[in-house]
């Protein structure tokens, strides 16, 4: 019996060796791709950073950052954009969460239709959207672009529409990750009304999804240029465009700040995702 | 007077009946199981009691109150789901206390009720755990406690053990029955597992294609099935073809089989003689006996399953295991026997 086993082992094809060789080759290729990617992504950033730190010729320093952070126009436009972004997020959540929840719960067949509708801002360029807004709301009888308040409302509504693809996707993914039908029915059988279910069962379980959607919306609104420019709003986007046309080091400093801000936001999402109880491993059987 | 009443309840989906003419009266504190294959309408009926589906026709009442059109949150019915459905963002204590909080029960009372229920389900130290930190069996216990917290008039369980391992399923089954008896709560239990239905319930409702086939205690359902579906769905069954000779005798090829249950069909009618595998014995008997060839012998622990071919027919005999049992060999010619009271006759398909 042992002789048969020994023969079988001796005649077995030496498969492990080529496998190892192929593995080391692919490892080298993988590292080359990683290095290529790092160079591609980081070279512009390093160059931008370097430009931002040399606002005064041949002198390393934070002059460009100081100039930006002390510029009253920066503070005004940035504050305005932050407020716009927050209002856009609130509006977007009010529209998207109940819609996505209701569609997922009661009309799952309409999911693809709603998804298509929310994708329209990708298909319609911002410039087309803004001309549509100007034609629709500018002339009488609506004449909503005559006052700065109503123009700002139009701007926020337009931003909410722009955020739909991101917000809907984030919310829909969050809803797919939890069994909303059963959770809803469980809450109903315990005496919960619709607002209670949405507020105390659905919302807390979508925390990470909502945060992702909100941060993406924030990023879009903060830097948005086209719509703000055509609606005559002095937000952060037009300010940055103006800065790029007239300054050298300050736009670079703004870019670095935006980059740092994005990474902090991503870090927050990642941290909260790890802390979310529902994102952890499901219960053992 | 019955506590839960379903009166001529019907539910259509896209014009097709999922449940038809469903009539059932359940007494207070009774445990009733809805048993049937997938798509038989048992879960739809349960969901109509819970209020998640509205009946197309008929009336449902609990404790004399018509709840046919009441919303689910107005029914005071506790529900346990197959997938546990615990709120992932809440701790065990918060899950159990959720319904009480909605009813504006005082904080101290909620605390003591949650503690009492966690004691009842043998998880007193899991108050601060999150659902994902519990095993499936523990999660289902918490789901049961949460459903019981609101002191529901009726407890509904929708295949609550289907997602669990066999061992945990057995343990939890016993727990559910203990708690139900302790609280004397009227319970409806949906399952496709006949053993579960028979082990747990006072009465079983066997359903097929949206229709109630038979209602009765497990013993009656198993031993005195009223329809061919119940006879074949609940337990294993041998169906031996033959033709009626008289009110007590059937001719099956060369053998004559006797039954004590009167045969309603007229002489010459093609029928099946129905007999459970555990009623059969190997060897000659005093009443009915048949000859055949052993096709397989499967040792299953407590029982030994012997399959015997008899012409084109296959007959299964379940023999109770004992140390002195002499097992037949495959290919042996054997005689099997059963008493006349063990079989009954149904018209052939």
Q: Briefly note the structural class of the backbone of chain B.
A: alpha+beta
Can you count the beta strands of chain B?
20
Work out the radius of gyration of chain A: 27 Å
For the biggest sheet of chain A, the summary is: none
Mean pLDDT of chain A, to the nearest integer, reads 85
Helicity of chain B, as a percent range: 10-25%
What's the overall geometry of chain A?
globular
What gap, in angstroms, lies between the N and C termini of chain A? 42 Å
Q: What would the CATH topology of chain A be? A: MetI-like fold
N-to-C CA distance of chain B? 40 Å
Oligomer: heterodimer
Instruction: Give the strand order, joined by hyphens, for the main sheet of chain B.
Output: 6-7-8-3-9-10
Characterise the protein shown here.
- The complex is a heterodimer of chains A (285) and B (349).
- Chain A has 285 residues and is mostly helical.
- Chain A has a single domain, classed as MetI-like (MetI-like fold, Orthogonal Bundle).
- Chain A is 79% helix and 0% strand.
- Chain A is built from 13 helices and no strands.
- Chain A has helices at 2-11, 16-52, 63-69, 72-106, 111-123, 126-137, 148-177, 180-189, 194-205, 207-223, 226-230, 236-246, 249-275.
- In chain A, α7 (148-177) runs antiparallel to α10 (207-223) and α10 packs antiparallel against α13.
- Chain A is globular.
- Mean pLDDT of chain A is 85; it is low at 1-15 and 279-285.
- Chain B is of the alpha+beta class.
- Helix content of chain B is 24%, strand content 36%.
- Chain B has helices at residues 42-50, 92-102, 107-120, 136-149, 166-183, 194-200, 218-223, 228-233; strands at residues 4-13, 16-26, 31-35, 57-62, 65-66, 77-80, 154-158, 186-191, 203-208, 211-216, 238-246, 249-252, 255-258, 270-275, 281-282, 288-299, 303-310, 313-320, 333-338, 343-347.
- In chain B, the strands form 4 sheets. Chain B has a 6-stranded mixed β-sheet, with helices on both faces.
- In chain B, β11 (238-246) and β12 form a beta hairpin.
- In chain B, α2 (92-102) packs parallel to α4.
- Chains A and B meet through α8 and α9 of A and β6, α2 and α4 of B.
């Amino acid at each position: 019996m042992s002789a048969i086993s020994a023969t079988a082992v001796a005649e077995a094809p030496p498969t492990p060796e080529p496998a190892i060789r192929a593995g080391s080759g692919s490892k080298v290729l993988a590292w080359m791709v990683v290095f290529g990617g790092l160079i591609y992504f980081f070279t512009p950033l390093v160059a931008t950073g370097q430009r931002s730190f040399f606002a005064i010729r041949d002198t390393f320093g934070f002059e460009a950052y100081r100039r930006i952070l002390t510029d009253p126009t920066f503070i005004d436009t940035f504050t305005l954009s932050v407020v716009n972004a927050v209002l856009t997020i609130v509006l977007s959540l009010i529209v998207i969460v109940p819609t996505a929840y209701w569609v997922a719960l009661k009309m799952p067949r309409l999911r693809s239709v709603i998804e298509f509708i929310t994708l329209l801002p990708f298909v319609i360029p911002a410039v087309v959207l803004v001309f549509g807004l100007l034609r629709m709301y500018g002339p009488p009888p609506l004449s909503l672009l005559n006052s700065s308040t109503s123009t700002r409302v139009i701007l926020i509504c337009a931003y909410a529409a722009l955020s739909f693809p991101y917000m809907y996707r984030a919310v829909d993914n969050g809803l797919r990750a939890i069994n909303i039908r059963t959770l809803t029915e469980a809450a109903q059988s315990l005496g919960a009304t619709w607002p209670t279910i949405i507020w105390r069962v659905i919302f807390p379980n979508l925390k990470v999804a909502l945060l992702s959607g909100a941060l993406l919306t924030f990023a879009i609104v903060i830097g948005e240029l086209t719509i703000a420019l055509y609606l005559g709003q002095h937000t952060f986007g037009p300010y940055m465009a103006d800065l790029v046309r007239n300054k050298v080091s300050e736009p670079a400093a703004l870019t670095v700040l935006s980059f740092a801000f994005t990474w902090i936001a991503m870090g927050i999402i990642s941290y909260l995702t790890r802390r979310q109880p529902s994102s952890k491993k499901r219960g053992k059987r | 007077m019955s506590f839960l009443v379903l009166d001529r309840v019907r539910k259509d989906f896209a014009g097709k009946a999922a449940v038809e003419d469903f009539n059932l009266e359940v007494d207070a504190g009774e445990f009733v199981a809805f048993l049937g294959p997938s798509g038989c309408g048992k879960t739809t009926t349960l969901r109509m009691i819970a209020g998640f589906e509205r009946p197309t026709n008929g009336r449902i009442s609990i404790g004399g109150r018509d709840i046919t059109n009441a919303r689910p949150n107005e029914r005071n019915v506790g529900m346990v789901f197959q997938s546990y459905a615990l709120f992932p963002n809440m701790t065990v204590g918060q899950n159990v206390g959720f319904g009480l909080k909605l009813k504006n029960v005082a904080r101290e009372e909620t605390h003591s009720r949650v503690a009492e229920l966690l004691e009842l389900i043998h998880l007193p130290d899991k108050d601060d755990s999150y659902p994902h930190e519990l095993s499936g069996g523990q999660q289902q216990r918490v789901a049961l406690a949460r459903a019981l917290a609101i002191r529901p008039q009726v407890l509904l369980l929708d295949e609550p053990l289907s997602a669990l391992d066999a061992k945990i399923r057995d343990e939890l089954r016993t727990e559910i029955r203990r708690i139900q008896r302790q609280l004397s709560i009227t319970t409806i239990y949906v399952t496709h597992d006949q053993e579960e239905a028979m082990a747990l319930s006072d009465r079983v409702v066997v359903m097929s294609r949206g229709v109630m086939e038979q209602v009765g205690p497990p013993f009656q359902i198993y031993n005195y099935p009223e329809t061919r579906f119940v006879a074949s769905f609940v337990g294993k069954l041998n169906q031996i073809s033959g033709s009626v000779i008289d009110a007590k005798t059937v001719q099956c090829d060369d053998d004559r089989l006797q039954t004590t249950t009167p045969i309603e069909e007229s002489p010459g009618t093609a029928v099946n003689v129905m007999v459970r595998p555990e009623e059969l014995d190997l060897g000659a008997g005093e009443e009915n006996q048949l000859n055949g060839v052993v096709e397989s012998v499967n040792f299953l622990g407590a029982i030994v399953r012997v399959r015997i071919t008899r012409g084109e027919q296959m007959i299964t005999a379940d023999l109770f295991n004992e140390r002195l049992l002499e097992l037949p060999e495959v290919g042996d010619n054997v005689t099997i026997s059963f008493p006349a009271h063990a079989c009954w006759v149904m018209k052939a398909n």
